[in-house]
Amino acid sequence: MARCDVVVLGAGIIGVSVALHLQARGLSAVLMDHAPPGEGTSFGNAGCIEGSALFPVAFPHDPLVLLRHALKQAPESNYHLADLPALAPWLWAYFQKSAPAALVTTARELRPLLARARAEHHLLAEPAGAMDLLAPTGWLKLYRTPALFAATTAERALADDLKVAYTVHDTAGALALEPALRPRFTHAIHWHDCDNCSDPGGLVKAYAALFERRGGLLLSGDARSLRRAGPRWRAETAEGPVDAEEAVVCLGPWSLDLLAPLGIQLPLISKRGYHVHLAPEQGLQLGRAVVDVAGGYALQNTRYGIRLTTGVEFAGRDAAPTPRQVEQDIPMARELLPLGAVRESEPWLGRRPALPDSKPIIGPAPGLAGLHLAVGHGHWGLTLGPVTGLLLAQMMAGDTPFTDPKPFSARRFL
Ligand SMILES: Cc1cc2nc3c(=O)[nH]c(=O)nc-3n(C[C@H](O)[C@H](O)[C@H](O)COP(=O)(O)OP(=O)(O)OC[C@H]3O[C@@H](n4cnc5c(N)ncnc54)[C@H](O)[C@@H]3O)c2cc1C
Question: Is the full-model pTM beyond 0.85?
Answer without folding.
Answer: yes
